[in-house]
Design brief:
Blueprint: H1 2-32, H2 48-56, H3 77-83, H4 92-104, H5 113-117, H6 121-148, H7 155-182, E1 197-207, E2 215-225, E3 229-238, E4 243-256, E5 263-275, E6 280-295, E7 307-322, E8 330-337, E9 340-347, E10 352-359, H8 368-373, E11 375-383, E12 389-394
Antiparallel strand pairs: 1-2, 2-3, 3-4, 4-5, 5-6, 6-7, 7-8, 7-9, 9-10, 10-11, 11-12
Helix pairs in contact: 4-7, 6-7
């Protein structure tokens, strides 16, 4: 027992020292005013994409559900645009103004330069390539016509080639300007140049030809379009009743895209023209045409409502003449020719549609040089209500 008592006495100083330290530690912390530090916590690993998603909310496209694990820093500008990222609010003000100035000035020689400046290489190179093809068509056709003097039987085929080159050149320039204006903005209004259903058109026309008095005419047309099949019947009557023409069109669209102005079809046309101003003059015409139209939205989203189309085929005119004192027509001549037309259309507002084109004329009083080089046409159509349009056109 003495040994146990002796050991306890030796351990007592150590125990008292320990208790004193435990009592002094919280007292010192209170005296200094500092809170006792909590134990260090292990920070969880944070995915940068989750932080970005929390900041943008619904504006951020969900790429993970689509199976894409490509890091954002490795994505190209086009890939980010397709993924839904909008860069319109950063520096597009100055860039868009500079791109518009380039497309209007330098773009006359280098089509697509405005899109290239904005970083849209796909649209820019497409328009530049279209310009190259158009220049090649114009140069080839003009060289052939110039070397042969237009007397070769193939001149009728090179005329549409020249017209196609001119139309493609103008279209690629205007598409660059329009695309720069709409880049980063809201979508264009739906294109209303082709309307399904039944429509009736009544318009006044003024025909002014060199060497002949001006003529006033009333034109009326009834059209039906159900998508896959369409047709129309129209007539133009001179107010003095010495000129009248009648036309009919029947067409089918066996190949149609998801957009209403993307299709490929066939057309049959017939017309009859009677004119007593030059004696008894009659002309019968028949045409077969291949018609195609394409809406650019499938490849270029900011030009989704810009469409262009073309038509070409084979046509023949049978011209009949009769002496003034008789009503018996005699076949005077026939004319085999290749019709061609290319056009483009878009809506500058929800109610106003613009359609411009270029091609071979189907007009009697156009001189031969006009038939060779082609004739431009321009139409503004304003939709004043769901049942009526107001149209102004010229060629």
């Amino acid at each position: 027992m003495g040994a146990a008592y002796s050991g306890a006495m030796r351990a007592l100083p150590t125990l008292l020292t320990t208790l004193l330290c435990l009592w002094a530690a919280p007292s010192a912390a209170q005296d200094s005013g500092a809170d006792p530090e909590p134990p260090a916590a292990v920070e969880p690993t944070v995915d940068p994409f989750d932080e970005f998603e929390a900041e943008l909310g619904d504006e951020l496209p969900v790429r993970r559900e689509q199976g894409s694990e490509k890091p954002l820093e490795l994505m190209t500008r086009d890939e980010l645009d397709e993924a839904g990222f909008n860069f319109g609010g950063d520096t597009t003000g100055d860039n868009s103004s500079a791109a518009l100035l380039l497309s209007l000035t330098a773009g006359t020689a280098i089509h697509g330069i405005g899109h290239l400046y904005l970083g849209d290489r796909r649209t820019g190179w497409f328009l530049l390539g279209l310009e190259g093809v158009s220049v090649g068509l114009m140069f080839s056709a003009a060289s052939f016509i110039g070397l042969t003097g237009g007397a070769s039987p193939w001149a009728s085929a090179f005329g549409p080639m020249l017209q196609a080159g001119i139309a493609g050149f103008v279209f690629s320039y205007l598409a660059d300007v329009i695309g720069v204006l709409t880049k980063g903005e809201s979508d264009l209004s739906p294109n209303t140049s082709v309307e399904r259903g039944v429509g009736f058109r009544l318009r006044y026309g003024l025909l002014n030809a060199v060497g002949l008095p001006a003529r006033h005419a009333i034109d009326a047309r009834l059209a039906v379009d159900v998508g896959g099949v369409y047709g129309s019947a129209s007539t133009t009557q001179d107010v003095f009743l010495d000129l009248a023409s009648y036309r009919a069109i029947l067409g089918v669209r066996p190949l149609r895209g998801q957009r209403p102005l993307t299709f490929l079809g066939l057309e049959a046309r017939g017309d009859y023209l009677q004119w007593t101003g030059l004696g008894e003059f009659g002309r019968i015409g028949a045409q077969g045409r291949l018609v195609g139209s394409y809406q650019l939205g499938d490849q270029f989203p900011h030009l989704s409502e810009l469409a262009f189309g073309a038509t070409t085929g084979v046509a023949n005119h049978w011209i009949q003449l009769a002496p003034r004192d008789t009503t018996t027509f005699e076949l005077a001549s026939t004319r085999l020719w290749i019709p061609f037309d290319i056009w483009s259309s878009l809506n500058v507002s929800s109610s106003l549609n613009v359609r411009a084109g270029f091609g071979s004329p189907d007009v009697l009083l156009v001189p031969p040089i006009g038939r060779l080089l082609g004739v431009g046409h321009f139409t503004l159509t304003y939709r004043s209500s769901s049942y009526g349009d107001i149209s102004l056109g010229a060629e």
